Amino acid sequence: MKALLVCEYREGKLLEGSYELISFADRLGVEKAIVLVGSENAVPKADARVYLANAAAWAEYNPEIHRKIVLEAVQRESPDYIVFLHSSYGWDLAPRVAAALKAAQISEVASLQDGKFEVSCCNGKMRRTVTSATERTVVTIQAGAFSFSGEPRGVPRVEMIAPPVAASAVEFIGYEAAEKKDVDLAKAAVIVSAGRGVGKKENVAAIDALAKALQGELGASRPVVDAGWVPHSHQVGTTGQTVSPKLYVACGISGAIQHLAGMKKSEFIVAINKDKDAPIGEVADVLVVADVNQFVPALTAKLRK
Amino acid sequence: MKILVCIKQVPDMESKFKVNAKGVWYEETDLAFRMNEYDEYAVEQAVQLKEQLGGGPEVTVLSIGPDRVLEPVKKALAMGCDRAVHLKDDDSSGKDPWQIASAIAGFSRDKNFDLIFTGMQSQDRGSAQVGAIVSELLGCACVTTVVHFAFNDGIVTAKRELEGGLKCIVRFRLPAVVTCQLGLNKPRYPTLPNIMKAKKKEIVSQAAAGFAATEALSGTGEFYVPAKKGRGIILEGDVNEMADRLIGILKEKTTVVR
To answer: The CATH number of A185-304 is which of 3.40.50.1220, 3.40.50.300, 3.30.70.100, 3.30.420.40?
Structure first.
Protein backbone atom coordinates (compact mmCIF):
# COMPACT_ATOMS: atom_id res chain seq x y z
CA MET A 1 0.00 0.00 0.00
CA LYS A 2 1.16 3.50 -0.76
CA ALA A 3 0.14 7.00 0.26
CA LEU A 4 0.70 10.18 -1.70
CA LEU A 5 1.12 13.01 0.81
CA VAL A 6 0.10 16.47 -0.34
CA CYS A 7 2.37 18.82 1.61
CA GLU A 8 1.68 22.51 2.14
CA TYR A 9 3.77 25.53 1.30
CA ARG A 10 3.12 29.20 1.93
CA GLU A 11 5.18 32.36 1.49
CA GLY A 12 8.50 30.63 0.94
CA LYS A 13 8.11 28.02 3.65
CA LEU A 14 7.10 24.41 3.97
CA LEU A 15 4.26 24.35 6.51
CA GLU A 16 5.03 22.38 9.68
CA GLY A 17 1.85 20.36 9.32
CA SER A 18 3.41 18.64 6.32
CA TYR A 19 5.32 16.40 8.73
CA GLU A 20 2.05 15.28 10.31
CA LEU A 21 1.24 13.71 6.93
CA ILE A 22 4.49 11.73 7.13
CA SER A 23 3.66 10.69 10.67
CA PHE A 24 0.20 9.57 9.54
CA ALA A 25 1.63 7.45 6.70
CA ASP A 26 4.11 5.86 9.10
CA ARG A 27 1.37 5.00 11.56
CA LEU A 28 -0.77 3.60 8.77
CA GLY A 29 2.25 1.51 7.84
CA VAL A 30 2.31 2.36 4.15
CA GLU A 31 4.96 3.49 1.66
CA LYS A 32 4.98 7.18 0.98
CA ALA A 33 5.50 9.59 -1.85
CA ILE A 34 5.11 13.34 -1.60
CA VAL A 35 3.76 16.06 -3.83
CA LEU A 36 4.44 19.72 -3.15
CA VAL A 37 3.60 22.89 -4.97
CA GLY A 38 6.37 24.92 -3.45
CA SER A 39 10.04 25.50 -3.89
CA GLU A 40 13.19 23.39 -4.04
CA ASN A 41 14.40 25.36 -1.02
CA ALA A 42 11.56 24.00 1.09
CA VAL A 43 11.33 20.31 0.33
CA PRO A 44 10.33 18.06 3.25
CA LYS A 45 13.14 15.98 4.74
CA ALA A 46 11.98 12.43 4.15
CA ASP A 47 13.23 9.32 2.42
CA ALA A 48 10.65 9.50 -0.32
CA ARG A 49 10.07 10.60 -3.85
CA VAL A 50 8.94 14.22 -3.92
CA TYR A 51 7.03 15.51 -6.91
CA LEU A 52 7.78 19.19 -6.92
CA ALA A 53 6.11 21.95 -8.87
CA ASN A 54 7.38 25.46 -8.61
CA ALA A 55 4.84 27.70 -6.88
CA ALA A 56 6.63 30.91 -7.77
CA ALA A 57 5.79 30.57 -11.43
CA TRP A 58 2.14 29.80 -10.88
CA ALA A 59 0.95 31.73 -7.87
CA GLU A 60 0.84 29.96 -4.56
CA TYR A 61 -2.85 29.50 -4.44
CA ASN A 62 -4.53 28.34 -7.56
CA PRO A 63 -6.92 25.48 -6.98
CA GLU A 64 -7.17 24.43 -10.60
CA ILE A 65 -3.43 24.25 -11.20
CA HIS A 66 -2.76 22.60 -7.84
CA ARG A 67 -5.47 20.06 -8.57
CA LYS A 68 -3.87 19.18 -11.90
CA ILE A 69 -0.43 18.82 -10.30
CA VAL A 70 -1.77 16.47 -7.61
CA LEU A 71 -3.59 14.44 -10.25
CA GLU A 72 -0.39 14.22 -12.28
CA ALA A 73 1.44 12.84 -9.23
CA VAL A 74 -1.42 10.38 -8.65
CA GLN A 75 -1.05 9.14 -12.19
CA ARG A 76 2.71 8.68 -11.88
CA GLU A 77 2.67 7.11 -8.44
CA SER A 78 -0.64 5.20 -8.41
CA PRO A 79 -1.19 5.54 -4.63
CA ASP A 80 -3.90 3.84 -2.57
CA TYR A 81 -4.30 6.93 -0.38
CA ILE A 82 -4.00 10.59 -1.20
CA VAL A 83 -3.55 12.43 2.07
CA PHE A 84 -4.09 16.12 2.87
CA LEU A 85 -4.21 18.06 6.09
CA HIS A 86 -7.73 19.02 7.15
CA SER A 87 -6.77 22.67 6.75
CA SER A 88 -7.87 25.57 4.58
CA TYR A 89 -5.72 24.03 1.82
CA GLY A 90 -7.06 20.51 2.30
CA TRP A 91 -10.70 21.66 2.52
CA ASP A 92 -10.24 23.41 -0.75
CA LEU A 93 -8.29 20.87 -2.73
CA ALA A 94 -9.08 17.39 -1.38
CA PRO A 95 -12.73 17.19 -2.53
CA ARG A 96 -11.78 18.42 -6.01
CA VAL A 97 -9.12 15.71 -6.32
CA ALA A 98 -11.49 13.09 -4.88
CA ALA A 99 -14.29 14.08 -7.27
CA ALA A 100 -11.93 14.12 -10.25
CA LEU A 101 -10.84 10.56 -9.37
CA LYS A 102 -14.35 9.57 -8.30
CA ALA A 103 -12.72 8.39 -5.11
CA ALA A 104 -14.11 8.29 -1.59
CA GLN A 105 -12.97 11.08 0.69
CA ILE A 106 -12.69 10.52 4.42
CA SER A 107 -12.53 13.90 6.13
CA GLU A 108 -10.73 14.91 9.31
CA VAL A 109 -9.37 11.55 10.45
CA ALA A 110 -8.57 11.89 14.14
CA SER A 111 -7.20 8.42 14.83
CA LEU A 112 -6.77 4.91 13.52
CA GLN A 113 -8.83 2.24 15.28
CA ASP A 114 -7.55 -1.21 14.30
CA GLY A 115 -6.77 0.14 10.87
CA LYS A 116 -10.15 1.88 10.59
CA PHE A 117 -10.36 5.61 10.09
CA GLU A 118 -12.05 7.33 13.00
CA VAL A 119 -13.47 10.78 12.51
CA SER A 120 -15.08 13.19 14.91
CA CYS A 121 -18.62 14.48 14.25
CA CYS A 122 -21.50 16.36 15.88
CA ASN A 123 -19.20 19.12 17.08
CA GLY A 124 -16.81 16.65 18.68
CA LYS A 125 -19.47 14.87 20.73
CA MET A 126 -19.59 11.69 18.64
CA ARG A 127 -17.22 9.56 16.60
CA ARG A 128 -17.70 7.42 13.55
CA THR A 129 -15.52 5.08 11.57
CA VAL A 130 -15.66 5.70 7.84
CA THR A 131 -15.11 3.12 5.16
CA SER A 132 -14.10 3.59 1.55
CA ALA A 133 -15.76 1.75 -1.31
CA THR A 134 -13.30 2.89 -3.95
CA GLU A 135 -9.90 1.72 -5.13
CA ARG A 136 -8.21 4.95 -4.12
CA THR A 137 -9.16 6.94 -1.06
CA VAL A 138 -8.62 10.62 -0.34
CA VAL A 139 -8.02 11.32 3.34
CA THR A 140 -7.74 14.58 5.25
CA ILE A 141 -6.20 14.36 8.72
CA GLN A 142 -7.09 16.44 11.73
CA ALA A 143 -4.43 19.02 12.56
CA GLY A 144 -2.41 17.85 15.55
CA ALA A 145 -3.87 14.34 15.60
CA PHE A 146 -0.77 12.71 14.11
CA SER A 147 1.90 14.96 15.51
CA PHE A 148 5.46 14.42 14.37
CA SER A 149 8.08 13.93 17.01
CA GLY A 150 11.80 14.27 16.63
CA GLU A 151 13.91 15.94 13.98
CA PRO A 152 12.77 15.43 10.41
CA ARG A 153 15.44 13.53 8.52
CA GLY A 154 15.76 11.75 5.25
CA VAL A 155 16.87 12.46 1.72
CA PRO A 156 14.08 13.31 -0.69
CA ARG A 157 14.36 12.23 -4.31
CA VAL A 158 13.00 15.22 -6.14
CA GLU A 159 11.21 14.85 -9.46
CA MET A 160 9.94 18.00 -11.08
CA ILE A 161 6.42 18.35 -12.38
CA ALA A 162 6.05 21.05 -14.99
CA PRO A 163 3.03 23.10 -14.01
CA PRO A 164 0.26 22.46 -16.50
CA VAL A 165 -0.99 25.13 -18.78
CA ALA A 166 -4.48 25.73 -17.51
CA ALA A 167 -6.75 28.66 -17.82
CA SER A 168 -7.86 29.45 -14.33
CA ALA A 169 -11.17 30.88 -13.25
CA VAL A 170 -9.78 31.91 -9.88
CA GLU A 171 -7.07 34.54 -9.73
CA PHE A 172 -4.80 34.76 -6.67
CA ILE A 173 -4.33 38.39 -5.63
CA GLY A 174 -2.32 38.00 -2.44
CA TYR A 175 -2.44 37.56 1.28
CA GLU A 176 -3.89 39.80 3.91
CA ALA A 177 -1.93 39.59 7.15
CA ALA A 178 -3.62 38.93 10.45
CA GLU A 179 -4.88 42.02 12.25
CA LYS A 180 -2.34 43.63 14.51
CA LYS A 181 -2.59 42.17 17.96
CA ASP A 182 -3.42 44.57 20.76
CA VAL A 183 -2.93 41.72 23.17
CA ASP A 184 -0.31 39.00 23.07
CA LEU A 185 -2.08 36.06 24.63
CA ALA A 186 0.97 33.86 24.15
CA LYS A 187 2.66 35.71 27.03
CA ALA A 188 -0.24 35.58 29.47
CA ALA A 189 0.05 33.30 32.52
CA VAL A 190 -3.72 33.17 32.87
CA ILE A 191 -6.34 33.34 30.12
CA VAL A 192 -10.06 33.41 30.79
CA SER A 193 -12.02 32.87 27.60
CA ALA A 194 -15.60 33.64 26.75
CA GLY A 195 -17.62 31.30 24.52
CA ARG A 196 -21.06 31.27 23.05
CA GLY A 197 -22.45 30.06 26.38
CA VAL A 198 -22.11 33.57 27.83
CA GLY A 199 -25.27 34.32 25.84
CA LYS A 200 -24.84 38.00 24.97
CA LYS A 201 -22.29 40.77 24.63
CA GLU A 202 -23.17 42.38 27.95
CA ASN A 203 -22.17 39.20 29.77
CA VAL A 204 -18.60 39.33 28.47
CA ALA A 205 -17.82 41.97 31.13
CA ALA A 206 -18.20 39.35 33.87
CA ILE A 207 -15.72 37.06 32.07
CA ASP A 208 -13.30 39.96 31.73
CA ALA A 209 -13.73 40.69 35.43
CA LEU A 210 -12.72 37.12 36.26
CA ALA A 211 -9.69 37.48 33.97
CA LYS A 212 -8.68 40.64 35.89
CA ALA A 213 -9.26 38.99 39.27
CA LEU A 214 -6.83 36.28 38.17
CA GLN A 215 -4.45 38.91 36.70
CA GLY A 216 -4.91 37.35 33.31
CA GLU A 217 -6.10 38.25 29.84
CA LEU A 218 -9.47 37.87 28.21
CA GLY A 219 -9.64 35.25 25.46
CA ALA A 220 -12.54 34.23 23.26
CA SER A 221 -13.80 31.45 21.05
CA ARG A 222 -14.70 32.00 17.44
CA PRO A 223 -18.50 32.48 17.69
CA VAL A 224 -18.00 35.27 20.23
CA VAL A 225 -15.54 37.02 17.93
CA ASP A 226 -17.76 36.53 14.86
CA ALA A 227 -20.67 38.02 16.77
CA GLY A 228 -18.55 41.09 17.49
CA TRP A 229 -18.65 40.69 21.28
CA VAL A 230 -14.84 40.49 21.58
CA PRO A 231 -12.18 41.72 19.08
CA HIS A 232 -10.44 39.13 16.89
CA SER A 233 -7.10 39.81 18.58
CA HIS A 234 -8.43 37.85 21.59
CA GLN A 235 -9.41 34.79 19.60
CA VAL A 236 -7.91 31.48 20.68
CA GLY A 237 -7.80 28.63 18.20
CA THR A 238 -6.71 27.63 14.72
CA THR A 239 -7.66 30.96 13.16
CA GLY A 240 -6.60 32.97 16.18
CA GLN A 241 -3.73 32.52 18.64
CA THR A 242 -2.25 29.32 19.99
CA VAL A 243 -1.67 29.59 23.72
CA SER A 244 -0.28 27.54 26.61
CA PRO A 245 -0.78 29.56 29.81
CA LYS A 246 -0.40 28.24 33.35
CA LEU A 247 -4.18 28.43 33.74
CA TYR A 248 -6.85 28.47 31.04
CA VAL A 249 -10.46 29.01 32.03
CA ALA A 250 -13.00 28.21 29.28
CA CYS A 251 -16.32 29.87 30.06
CA GLY A 252 -19.26 28.57 28.05
CA ILE A 253 -17.02 27.08 25.36
CA SER A 254 -18.18 23.74 23.94
CA GLY A 255 -14.71 22.81 22.69
CA ALA A 256 -14.81 22.66 18.90
CA ILE A 257 -11.61 21.08 17.60
CA GLN A 258 -10.46 24.42 16.16
CA HIS A 259 -10.60 25.90 19.66
CA LEU A 260 -9.01 22.90 21.38
CA ALA A 261 -6.12 23.02 18.92
CA GLY A 262 -5.32 26.51 20.20
CA MET A 263 -5.39 25.86 23.95
CA LYS A 264 -5.06 22.19 24.84
CA LYS A 265 -1.39 22.56 25.76
CA SER A 266 -2.27 24.87 28.65
CA GLU A 267 -0.83 23.64 31.95
CA PHE A 268 -4.14 23.59 33.81
CA ILE A 269 -7.56 23.83 32.20
CA VAL A 270 -10.83 24.72 33.91
CA ALA A 271 -14.03 24.49 31.89
CA ILE A 272 -17.32 25.98 32.99
CA ASN A 273 -20.19 24.61 30.96
CA LYS A 274 -23.75 23.60 31.63
CA ASP A 275 -23.41 20.73 29.15
CA LYS A 276 -21.59 17.94 30.97
CA ASP A 277 -20.96 16.14 27.66
CA ALA A 278 -19.37 19.11 25.90
CA PRO A 279 -16.07 18.05 24.26
CA ILE A 280 -14.18 20.68 26.29
CA GLY A 281 -14.54 18.15 29.13
CA GLU A 282 -12.04 15.91 27.34
CA VAL A 283 -9.19 18.32 27.93
CA ALA A 284 -10.33 19.94 31.18
CA ASP A 285 -8.62 19.24 34.49
CA VAL A 286 -11.73 20.55 36.20
CA LEU A 287 -15.17 20.70 34.61
CA VAL A 288 -17.64 22.87 36.49
CA VAL A 289 -21.15 21.95 35.40
CA ALA A 290 -22.93 25.29 35.72
CA ASP A 291 -24.36 28.29 33.92
CA VAL A 292 -21.35 30.58 33.37
CA ASN A 293 -23.40 33.65 34.08
CA GLN A 294 -24.15 32.43 37.58
CA PHE A 295 -20.88 30.71 38.37
CA VAL A 296 -18.35 33.24 37.05
CA PRO A 297 -19.55 36.24 39.12
CA ALA A 298 -19.67 34.05 42.24
CA LEU A 299 -16.10 32.86 41.62
CA THR A 300 -14.85 36.37 40.90
CA ALA A 301 -16.39 37.71 44.12
CA LYS A 302 -14.68 35.01 46.18
CA LEU A 303 -11.31 35.53 44.48
CA ARG A 304 -11.46 39.25 45.23
CA LYS A 305 -11.92 38.66 48.94
CA MET B 1 -28.62 36.55 -12.41
CA LYS B 2 -29.72 33.29 -10.84
CA ILE B 3 -28.50 32.26 -7.42
CA LEU B 4 -28.83 28.93 -5.65
CA VAL B 5 -28.31 28.48 -1.91
CA CYS B 6 -27.91 24.96 -0.55
CA ILE B 7 -28.82 24.46 3.09
CA LYS B 8 -28.87 21.51 5.45
CA GLN B 9 -30.91 20.94 8.56
CA VAL B 10 -28.88 19.71 11.53
CA PRO B 11 -29.61 18.99 15.19
CA ASP B 12 -28.85 21.61 17.79
CA MET B 13 -25.29 20.79 18.80
CA GLU B 14 -26.08 21.15 22.49
CA SER B 15 -28.25 18.05 22.19
CA LYS B 16 -27.43 14.75 23.81
CA PHE B 17 -26.85 12.33 20.93
CA LYS B 18 -27.96 8.72 20.96
CA VAL B 19 -26.96 6.07 18.46
CA ASN B 20 -29.76 4.93 16.13
CA ALA B 21 -30.94 1.34 15.67
CA LYS B 22 -28.63 0.73 12.70
CA GLY B 23 -25.69 2.03 14.72
CA VAL B 24 -24.53 4.36 11.95
CA TRP B 25 -25.96 7.77 12.88
CA TYR B 26 -27.90 9.58 15.60
CA GLU B 27 -31.41 8.74 16.71
CA GLU B 28 -33.63 11.62 15.63
CA THR B 29 -36.33 11.40 18.30
CA ASP B 30 -35.99 14.10 20.96
CA LEU B 31 -33.60 16.18 18.87
CA ALA B 32 -34.35 19.82 18.06
CA PHE B 33 -33.33 20.67 14.49
CA ARG B 34 -32.20 23.99 13.00
CA MET B 35 -30.49 25.39 9.94
CA ASN B 36 -26.80 24.45 9.70
CA GLU B 37 -25.02 27.53 11.03
CA TYR B 38 -22.61 27.82 8.09
CA ASP B 39 -25.58 27.80 5.70
CA GLU B 40 -27.14 30.79 7.45
CA TYR B 41 -24.18 32.83 6.21
CA ALA B 42 -24.76 31.42 2.71
CA VAL B 43 -28.42 32.49 2.74
CA GLU B 44 -27.52 35.94 4.07
CA GLN B 45 -24.85 36.50 1.40
CA ALA B 46 -27.22 35.49 -1.39
CA VAL B 47 -29.93 37.83 -0.08
CA GLN B 48 -27.43 40.69 0.37
CA LEU B 49 -26.28 40.26 -3.23
CA LYS B 50 -29.87 40.31 -4.43
CA GLU B 51 -30.46 43.54 -2.48
CA GLN B 52 -27.24 45.08 -3.80
CA LEU B 53 -28.41 44.41 -7.37
CA GLY B 54 -31.78 46.06 -6.78
CA GLY B 55 -33.70 42.84 -6.32
CA GLY B 56 -32.85 41.58 -9.81
CA PRO B 57 -31.37 38.16 -9.05
CA GLU B 58 -33.69 35.28 -8.29
CA VAL B 59 -32.57 33.35 -5.22
CA THR B 60 -33.57 29.69 -4.97
CA VAL B 61 -32.98 27.83 -1.72
CA LEU B 62 -32.48 24.07 -1.90
CA SER B 63 -32.47 21.45 0.81
CA ILE B 64 -32.24 17.65 0.71
CA GLY B 65 -33.92 15.45 3.29
CA PRO B 66 -37.21 14.32 4.80
CA ASP B 67 -40.16 16.69 5.27
CA ARG B 68 -38.66 18.18 8.43
CA VAL B 69 -36.18 20.13 6.29
CA LEU B 70 -39.03 22.39 5.21
CA GLU B 71 -38.57 24.25 8.48
CA PRO B 72 -35.14 25.79 7.68
CA VAL B 73 -36.30 26.17 4.06
CA LYS B 74 -39.13 28.40 5.30
CA LYS B 75 -36.67 30.33 7.42
CA ALA B 76 -34.50 30.92 4.34
CA LEU B 77 -37.57 32.16 2.45
CA ALA B 78 -38.36 34.49 5.35
CA MET B 79 -34.76 35.75 5.25
CA GLY B 80 -35.34 36.78 1.63
CA CYS B 81 -34.91 33.84 -0.76
CA ASP B 82 -37.52 33.90 -3.54
CA ARG B 83 -38.38 30.27 -4.01
CA ALA B 84 -37.49 26.86 -2.68
CA VAL B 85 -36.74 23.38 -3.91
CA HIS B 86 -37.08 20.44 -1.57
CA LEU B 87 -35.25 17.38 -2.86
CA LYS B 88 -37.08 14.79 -0.87
CA ASP B 89 -35.09 11.91 0.56
CA ASP B 90 -36.12 10.21 3.78
CA ASP B 91 -32.70 8.59 4.00
CA SER B 92 -30.54 11.63 3.28
CA SER B 93 -28.51 11.07 6.47
CA GLY B 94 -27.39 7.74 4.99
CA LYS B 95 -26.01 9.40 1.87
CA ASP B 96 -22.35 10.26 1.51
CA PRO B 97 -21.08 13.68 0.38
CA TRP B 98 -20.67 12.41 -3.19
CA GLN B 99 -24.36 11.45 -3.39
CA ILE B 100 -25.53 14.71 -1.83
CA ALA B 101 -23.31 16.75 -4.16
CA SER B 102 -24.42 14.77 -7.20
CA ALA B 103 -28.08 15.44 -6.33
CA ILE B 104 -27.37 19.18 -6.12
CA ALA B 105 -25.32 19.12 -9.35
CA GLY B 106 -27.94 16.95 -11.09
CA PHE B 107 -30.69 19.38 -10.16
CA SER B 108 -28.60 22.44 -11.10
CA ARG B 109 -27.13 21.23 -14.37
CA ASP B 110 -29.72 22.71 -16.75
CA LYS B 111 -30.71 25.65 -14.53
CA ASN B 112 -27.75 27.93 -15.33
CA PHE B 113 -27.16 29.25 -11.86
CA ASP B 114 -24.54 32.00 -11.83
CA LEU B 115 -23.69 31.53 -8.18
CA ILE B 116 -24.17 28.66 -5.79
CA PHE B 117 -23.68 29.48 -2.11
CA THR B 118 -23.42 26.90 0.62
CA GLY B 119 -21.80 26.47 4.02
CA MET B 120 -18.18 25.27 4.09
CA GLN B 121 -19.29 22.27 6.16
CA SER B 122 -22.19 20.92 8.17
CA GLN B 123 -22.13 20.98 11.95
CA ASP B 124 -23.14 17.34 12.32
CA ARG B 125 -21.17 15.49 9.61
CA GLY B 126 -18.42 18.05 9.15
CA SER B 127 -17.01 16.53 5.96
CA ALA B 128 -16.45 19.88 4.22
CA GLN B 129 -16.80 18.30 0.79
CA VAL B 130 -20.17 18.98 -0.81
CA GLY B 131 -19.60 22.48 -2.22
CA ALA B 132 -16.29 21.63 -3.87
CA ILE B 133 -17.65 18.38 -5.34
CA VAL B 134 -20.64 20.27 -6.80
CA SER B 135 -18.25 22.64 -8.58
CA GLU B 136 -16.24 19.72 -9.88
CA LEU B 137 -19.37 18.02 -11.21
CA LEU B 138 -20.62 21.22 -12.81
CA GLY B 139 -17.17 22.20 -14.09
CA CYS B 140 -17.29 25.69 -12.65
CA ALA B 141 -15.04 27.73 -10.36
CA CYS B 142 -15.08 27.15 -6.64
CA VAL B 143 -13.90 29.35 -3.80
CA THR B 144 -14.01 27.87 -0.33
CA THR B 145 -13.98 29.12 3.27
CA VAL B 146 -15.00 32.63 2.33
CA VAL B 147 -15.07 35.34 5.02
CA HIS B 148 -15.48 38.35 2.72
CA PHE B 149 -17.46 38.63 -0.51
CA ALA B 150 -17.80 41.66 -2.81
CA PHE B 151 -19.45 41.70 -6.23
CA ASN B 152 -18.71 44.48 -8.74
CA ASP B 153 -19.28 44.59 -12.51
CA GLY B 154 -19.52 40.84 -12.84
CA ILE B 155 -16.37 40.15 -10.85
CA VAL B 156 -16.20 38.79 -7.33
CA THR B 157 -13.40 39.67 -4.94
CA ALA B 158 -13.38 37.33 -1.99
CA LYS B 159 -11.22 36.59 1.00
CA ARG B 160 -10.60 33.01 2.06
CA GLU B 161 -9.74 32.33 5.65
CA LEU B 162 -6.43 30.55 6.20
CA GLU B 163 -4.78 29.64 9.49
CA GLY B 164 -3.61 32.00 12.23
CA GLY B 165 -5.65 35.00 11.08
CA LEU B 166 -4.13 35.08 7.58
CA LYS B 167 -6.48 35.59 4.64
CA CYS B 168 -6.07 34.90 0.95
CA ILE B 169 -7.55 37.35 -1.53
CA VAL B 170 -8.91 36.00 -4.81
CA ARG B 171 -10.83 37.32 -7.79
CA PHE B 172 -13.12 35.30 -10.02
CA ARG B 173 -15.87 35.44 -12.56
CA LEU B 174 -19.18 33.60 -12.55
CA PRO B 175 -20.42 30.91 -12.62
CA ALA B 176 -18.95 29.78 -9.32
CA VAL B 177 -19.62 27.84 -6.15
CA VAL B 178 -18.83 29.73 -2.95
CA THR B 179 -18.57 27.97 0.41
CA CYS B 180 -19.15 30.21 3.41
CA GLN B 181 -17.17 30.31 6.64
CA LEU B 182 -18.54 31.60 9.94
CA GLY B 183 -18.28 35.35 10.31
CA LEU B 184 -18.78 36.14 6.60
CA ASN B 185 -21.68 38.45 7.45
CA LYS B 186 -24.38 38.90 10.08
CA PRO B 187 -27.25 36.55 9.22
CA ARG B 188 -30.54 38.40 9.72
CA TYR B 189 -33.42 37.27 11.84
CA PRO B 190 -36.62 36.85 9.85
CA THR B 191 -39.13 39.56 10.76
CA LEU B 192 -42.80 38.75 11.31
CA PRO B 193 -43.97 40.49 8.09
CA ASN B 194 -41.31 38.58 6.13
CA ILE B 195 -42.35 35.31 7.73
CA MET B 196 -45.93 36.04 6.59
CA LYS B 197 -44.73 36.96 3.10
CA ALA B 198 -42.68 33.78 2.90
CA LYS B 199 -45.81 31.68 3.31
CA LYS B 200 -46.85 32.70 -0.21
CA LYS B 201 -43.53 31.73 -1.79
CA GLU B 202 -43.28 28.64 -3.95
CA ILE B 203 -41.80 25.42 -2.58
CA VAL B 204 -41.31 22.74 -5.23
CA SER B 205 -40.88 19.21 -3.96
CA GLN B 206 -39.08 16.61 -6.07
CA ALA B 207 -37.57 13.24 -5.31
CA ALA B 208 -33.81 13.55 -4.78
CA ALA B 209 -33.41 10.07 -6.25
CA GLY B 210 -34.00 11.45 -9.74
CA PHE B 211 -30.80 13.49 -9.53
CA ALA B 212 -28.47 11.70 -7.15
CA ALA B 213 -25.73 9.16 -7.76
CA THR B 214 -27.01 5.71 -6.86
CA GLU B 215 -23.78 4.43 -5.33
CA ALA B 216 -22.04 5.86 -2.30
CA LEU B 217 -18.24 6.13 -2.41
CA SER B 218 -17.85 6.06 1.37
CA GLY B 219 -19.89 4.71 4.27
CA THR B 220 -20.14 4.72 8.02
CA GLY B 221 -18.79 1.66 9.77
CA GLU B 222 -19.82 2.55 13.28
CA PHE B 223 -21.18 5.60 15.08
CA TYR B 224 -20.57 5.91 18.79
CA VAL B 225 -19.98 8.07 21.82
CA PRO B 226 -16.22 8.56 22.27
CA ALA B 227 -14.57 6.76 25.14
CA LYS B 228 -14.29 9.31 27.93
CA LYS B 229 -10.78 10.63 27.89
CA GLY B 230 -11.66 13.16 30.54
CA ARG B 231 -8.97 12.94 33.21
CA GLY B 232 -10.48 15.78 35.13
CA ILE B 233 -12.57 16.38 38.20
CA ILE B 234 -16.24 17.14 37.60
CA LEU B 235 -17.93 19.60 39.94
CA GLU B 236 -21.71 19.71 40.14
CA GLY B 237 -24.21 21.27 42.52
CA ASP B 238 -24.40 24.54 44.42
CA VAL B 239 -22.64 27.47 42.74
CA ASN B 240 -21.00 28.84 45.91
CA GLU B 241 -19.77 25.46 47.05
CA MET B 242 -18.34 24.74 43.61
CA ALA B 243 -16.57 28.12 43.58
CA ASP B 244 -14.96 27.33 46.96
CA ARG B 245 -13.89 23.90 45.79
CA LEU B 246 -12.46 25.27 42.56
CA ILE B 247 -10.42 27.90 44.42
CA GLY B 248 -9.09 25.14 46.65
CA ILE B 249 -8.07 23.06 43.63
CA LEU B 250 -6.42 26.04 41.93
CA LYS B 251 -4.43 26.85 45.08
CA GLU B 252 -3.23 23.29 45.25
CA LYS B 253 -2.54 22.58 41.58
CA THR B 254 -1.50 25.89 40.08
CA THR B 255 0.81 28.74 41.00
CA VAL B 256 -1.51 31.50 39.86
CA VAL B 257 -3.95 31.51 42.77
CA ARG B 258 -2.63 31.92 46.30
So the answer is: 3.40.50.1220
